[in-house]
From TrEMBL, chain A:
Keyword terms: Lyase
Organism: Plastoroseomonas hellenica
Origin superkingdom: Bacteria
Protein name per UniProt: Carbon-phosphorus lyase complex subunit PhnI
InterPro entries: PhnI (IPR008773)
Gene Ontology molecular function terms on file: lyase activity
From TrEMBL, chain B:
Highest taxon, organism lineage: Bacteria
Alphabetic keyword roster: Lyase
GO MF: lyase activity
Name this polypeptide is given: Phosphonate C-P lyase system protein PhnG
One Pfam assignment: PhnG
Amino acid sequence: MYVAVKGGEAAIDAAHGWLAAERRGDPALPELTLDQIAQQMTLAVDRVMAEGSCYDRGLAALALKQARGDAIEAAFLLRAYRTTLARFGAAEPLDTGGMRIARRISATYKDLPGGQVLGPTFDYTHRLLDFALAAEGAPPATVPEREADTAVVPRVAELLAREGLMQREPQGEAEPTDLTRDPLTFPADRSARLQNLARGDEGFLLGLGYSTQRGYGNAHPFVGEIRQGRVTVEFTPPELGFPIAIGEIDVTECQMVNQFKGSLTEPPQFTRGYGLVFGHGERKAMAMALVDRALRAEELGEEVTAPAQDAEFVLYHSDNVEATGFVEHLKLPHYVDFQSELENIRAMRADAMGALKQAAE
Amino acid sequence: MGVLAHAGADAIEDRLAGHALPGYRRLRGPETGLVMLRGRAGGDGAAFNLGEMTITRCTLRTEDGLVGHAYVAGRDARQAELAALLDALLQDPARHDALHEAVIAPLAAAQAARAAEHARRAAATRVDFLAMATMR
């Protein structure tokens, strides 16, 4: 039960005043600019855009600054802001096949057309703190370059599909489910699941993905391909009637290759788990691909036994804005609820104590 | 339009400096809204909603009666307005070639150079596998 409570206004104002000062930190130090956050905390910005489900580096940087670096609070701010904007329409589906590659690796083929392109990766670093970074003013790093091959890099999944070894994705031009307009319902179709996962919490999906590898869901995945880079966004304005390029964005895509033992209608073949996220979010894209595949268990006729295969469990709990709202609401006043609980427990104790006393006599 | 969508307002304005531009009237915007971006399941299957992106649009009519539209990613109202103006002016055969040469071509060249640098940096991180001698 909720009752209106008054009071605390002055305390709230004072708390927010202190919050602003804490956000700023030592005023003797220069204040962070949004450009600095957008340029130097790029992966934090990427995460906020992905989980805030809104691609805008400047807004995500502002949200991070306002949230003192708290990624979930920042995603919440971005989600709240997006509700103030009108939607002009939906873009054409991104052509990740035509991506301008920054990184492209495959764990299934060593030599493949387009090659293994590492890009700006943390992989192969020694994870030793680099104290050189603690000193400021280092000259800008020179980036090695090499003559580029301009051929379009083919997809690994397509190479397998051409041999009939990879299940083709069902085609269809049906309007996809939009969770920002319609509530989640079950059974959730693939478009609803993928939208939910794309904006889901990285930590939650990482844990679930990990669980599928450890035996909760019987997954034997291979990274068919991870690609990161720029894709052009095309949009068809109603007044023009043809698609125009409106900008380009960075995305990360992961194709997990999983075995499928076949069914009555389909021979044994590989199936895909798919991950696609805003920015450079490789861990999130991989986790998303693992969970996407786990959630396909039912449609592929596999036994549903593990948490990651349970669509209701996964999709109802993946959204960190929803989750934080419900978990954190517990700190709001529950004075009246608790009064009734108190009365309840006192009455139960009185009964129990009476019974104990009787038994002792 | 793609070139202008990828160019900052300052860069467009610099290129327009010195050109006599006609007056115009805004018909709509510039206004910022959202566009829903989509991916495809498995990269090539049915579409799904990936998440939104900010977008700014503008429509205007020049004194000569040409209507220009622009939709650009982000929230830069000046960029959208300049792009709409150029969209209108480029429809004028008398202005098209000069504006294309002064504004669109150099911006496109700068963007192509940036893309080429990106590609060369990626190419430098491409692994060249060496055959290892076996230890047996």
